[in-house]
Amino acid sequence: MTVLTPAAKMQFFAASGIPLAGGLLYTYAAGTTTPSATYTDSSGGTANSNPIVLDARGEANVWLGAATYKFKLCDSTNTEIWTVDNISAPTSALSPVLSGNVTVASNSSGAALKVTQTGTGAIFVAQNSADPNLIPFIVNASNNVGIQTSAPSAALDVANNGAIWLSNSGVARSIISADGSNSYYSAEGARSIVLKANGTTLFTINTTNATATIPIVLPAIPTTALQAATKSYVDQVLPPGCIMPFAGTSAPTSWVACDGSAIDRTTYAALFAAIGTTWGIGNDTTTFNVPDLRGMFVRGTGTNATGSSSGAAGPAVGAYAADTFASHNHSASSGDYGHSHGATSSSAQFICLGSGGGPGYATGGTYSQGLVGQSTTATGYASIYTTIGNTGSTETKPKNYGVLYIIKT
């Protein structure tokens, strides 16, 4: 591909068509008669005279600055030929215009392509001809790079909910994106998200869980629904050794059943520190026993000193107390099976009732009403019984439901 070269020098002609030798070119600030400098070369280091005196071919080196100019051309006698206002150097990519496939080849230690902007416009703009304004790539005058935005406000600004891919062979491995509500970082496939500092892994999130080798600072006491609780706070609320009834059939995580089991002193160090061997020494070296509360009711230790309960005493922590009964009375009923007495008399006379209901006596086989005063002696026995009712089972207990007692580890 070839393009037309820009004019290497400015050249002016007289009305007759011959070069304007000795002609004068005045340069002013646009719209004024205030002189404005032009330069002898592209460096802008040396200003031309004003007016510029044209050589024998009517030529001069005229390099413009960033200003906008007014030119006035005169002949060698200083007679005005023309005046043109609002002249400026190109400030956009319109000059030069490259079309087709452009290759910049270099075999040097410097940059293959260097774009220098001395004005206020963008340094570089790549546009889609079908949609040049909505989806450009731009490097603006503040050195910010914009993708799908013509006004980037950061070093890299990806607009329109765009996504940045970190890829390998065209396959996305990590994707950074955002929309109007959220920001996203996605590790594609079965890949972990790993946070490192100075080459040391600090935090890892994989497809199943997250692990950290750095402390994550949590509030001492959580106050909102989204705040996590520290282990210290949980241990304050439910310290190791805390016993609770549980409606399930097996203990949940961080708890064990109160079934008297011998458990490891190292694995359950916090619980061992709390209860020691109070409930059993285990193997006396590496294990200890948890309470065995199967079939048991629990009672507060110590002696009560409050109101009507004053004096009630519970066993020491870990001590067993068998069932007992407080002193009490029972009602009883008595009955007589019937009894009789024997009697002797010196005259063989016996006291009896007469037919009229009054006392009488009999001598031999003869009955005679009346009472004969005789002396007698008597002996006899009585059979008396007492009945006390009984009821109950093999133990004393209130009405109850079964629960699983568990202890915090």
Give the helix proportion (percent range): under 10%
SS content category: mainly beta
Give the helix tally.
Answer: 2
How confident is the prediction overall: mean pLDDT?
A: 82
Please tally the β strands and state the result.
Answer: 30
CATH class descriptor name of the domain at 10-88: Mainly Beta
Distance between the termini: 82 Å
Poorly predicted runs are: 361-374
Compute the CA-based radius of gyration.
59 Å
What is the CATH architecture term of the domain at 10-88?
Beta Complex
Largest sheet data: 4 strands, antiparallel
CATH superfamily descriptor of the domain at 10-88:
Phage P22 tailspike-like, N-terminal domain
Strand order of the largest sheet: 3-2-5-6
Overall body shape? rod-shaped
> Would you tell me which CATH topology of the domain at 10-88 applies?
Tailspike Protein, Chain
Characterization of the model:
The chain has 409 residues and is mainly beta. Among the domains are: 10-88, Tailspike Protein, Chain; 163-212, no CATH class; 343-372, no CATH class. Helix content is 3%, strand content 32%. A hairpin with a 2-residue loop joins β11 and β12 (171-178). The longest helix has 7 residues, at 231-237. The radius of gyration is 59 Å and the shape is rod-shaped.
